[in-house]
Amino acid sequence: MTDPLYRQIAQDLRGQIQTGQLPPGAQLRTELELREHYKASRNTIRDAIKWLVSSGLVETRPGQGTFVVEKIDPFVTTLSEDPETGLGGGEGEAAFAEVRERGRNPTRIGPRVELRQAVGNVATRLRIEEGTQVVSRHWERFIDGIPWSLQTAFYPMDLVTRGAHQLLMAEDVPDGSVAYLKQTLSLVQVGYRDRILVRAPNEEESRFFRVADDGRIPMISIMRTSYQATDEGPVPFRVTYTNLPADRNQLVVNFGEVPPARAAAASLDPPRS
Amino acid sequence: MTDPLYRQIAQDLRGQIQTGQLPPGAQLRTELELREHYKASRNTIRDAIKWLVSSGLVETRPGQGTFVVEKIDPFVTTLSEDPETGLGGGEGEAAFAEVRERGRNPTRIGPRVELRQAVGNVATRLRIEEGTQVVSRHWERFIDGIPWSLQTAFYPMDLVTRGAHQLLMAEDVPDGSVAYLKQTLSLVQVGYRDRILVRAPNEEESRFFRVADDGRIPMISIMRTSYQATDEGPVPFRVTYTNLPADRNQLVVNFGEVPPARAAAASLDPPRS
DNA sequence: GCAAATTTGTTCGTATGTATT
DNA sequence: CAATACATACGAACAAATTTG
Questions:
Q1: Backbone torsions φ then ψ of B184, nearest 5 degrees
Q2: Exposed e or buried b for every residue in B170-202, given b needs 16+ CB within 10 A?
Q3: pLDDT tens-digit profile of A90-100?
Q4: A262 is near strand D: CB distance < 7 Å
């Protein structure tokens, strides 16, 4: 019936955070002080704090203390295509422009170009045999110096042998790869499908984004399959993975006619039900 | 340099899970057995298991043991509009149809209809004053008996006074509210914007979806603003919140021409970088 | 620059409670 | 009812990170 002690303590502290009595950035009393205050053992206090950490309300810093988390101003990525350029939202060039438009400073590292064998979803989505050669182009992106996204695009080797040699160069493709493939191979992108899921970060991601490696902060993973026009209808020519930590990213998708986007990210707004 | 003991143990167990040595559903050895095996104290074993729980790899059941989690076959919601019906993906009627199409059994409870004052994002997005009356229609949805989504739609009271009285009825609007508003008020939906973010569940959500209340399993929260045609361009007439637990849901968005969707949900596929 | 003080992190031991079989 | 397994709670000691004097 009654909650365990550590939960009662956690809920009391949570109340203080939610009422603003402990504002973002504020330091909680130390474990020893809380131990006296709640007349519990230090381990029980620590269990309470662990629950708050897991809920994303506080963070602990060894040697310093426990602090109420300060929300990161989230960056908003638009997935829908730009009606003017036809560029897919969230892709290299478009993503870059969108960030700068909002008065923030995007930087990037890459691309790292690799030749690989297609496996799993890459083979499935590109409709090629497992083991077929593909080119992968990998980018690391930052906003205002904060790690923002990891993105990898996979192209069938076929495109290169047919003349798109720029795909092998470890450098930016001017005006973007969609425009390049159109010029070089008359390949016209007619659409794309995004598949969005949420999962725990892997080791590389928790290192790059500097988030805990226990899955506290989830990743938003977007798998995009891009299609070109053919006589037999749309056929895939590229698969792109974009991985974003959920604590600093939101997505926007537009359908039909909508007014211009407002710059502000959505507040979390008491989720209503 | 060296990881703490509980991390080493956790990583060893993680290895056994990832290699399939401990397949999904398998039971781990008990804490006491692991204590002997690793020559550590029971508390240290428990710390290791807690890390695995937090990473979403195992779950503990009091009185039973610790088990490797079995992935739920995720349900895929398409957000893009149906080109035939013009219905927005993921909305009441469309969502229902999509589920049934995939051979799964959707049920629902609702709507619960309430009159409220618009606050926060609801007021902002509908472009009305805070405090203005709005109608909220709330649904609980299930797939194959499993809690799937909580959805709440907000309409300005204005629509009701102009004649859309069905919005106040705590019953399904036949053919959907978009069709109803078109018939009754000649209100034509011309587009919508989805804003997607990921956050920890609140208390009501963790209860309804039967997930841990410490935020281990994140929620995918979609805020949709729907627009009607006017002489001055698109104007919002509805705000819909859809909240989905991330462990059993994926999203799909289509742009331009894409082939028909395949039924299968995306596997998690070693996230590539 | 170093040493001390402060604060959280790790690890052990022990006892008792609660859920399930 | 008994046995088993995880959950809660206390106490204690030392380690590691950080700040302060």
A1: -80, -45
A2: eebbeebbbbbbbebeebebbbbbbbbbbbbbb
A3: 676 777 778 88
A4: no
- pTM score: 0.92
What is the Cα–Cα distance from A139 to A208, expressed in whole angstroms?
Answer: 12
Q: pLDDT digits over A70-119, tens only?
A: 988 889 999 987 765 556 666 767 777 788 878 888 999 979 999 999 98
A204 to B253: CB separation less than 8 angstroms, yes or no: no
Give residues with Cβ within 8 angstroms of B184, minimum separation 6: B163, B164, B166
Residue A218: list chain B partners with CB under 8 A.
198, 218, 246
Residues of chain A within CATH 1.10.10.10 domain(s) are 5-68
- B80 neighbourhood in chain A, CB within 8 Å: 253, 255
Domain B75-252 -> CATH class: alpha beta
Provide the CB-side half-sphere exposure for A82 (13 A, CA). Answer: 14
Q: Which nucleotides of D are covered by protein (CB under 7 A)?
A: 3-13, 16-19
Is B192 within 8 Å of B90 (Cβ atoms)? no
Look at A191 and B255 and tell me if their CB atoms are within 8 Å: yes
User: Range(s) for CATH 3.40.1410.10 in chain A?
Assistant: 75-252
Nearest chain A residue to B139 by CA: give it.
A273
Instruction: Find the Å distance, CA of residue B63 to C1' of nucleotide D3.
Output: 11
Query: CATH second-level architecture of A5-68?
Result: Orthogonal Bundle (1.10)
Confirm if A167 and A137 have CB atoms less than 8 A apart.
Answer: yes
Helix (H) or strand (E) holding A77: strand A75-78
* Token digits of residue B177: 């509210």
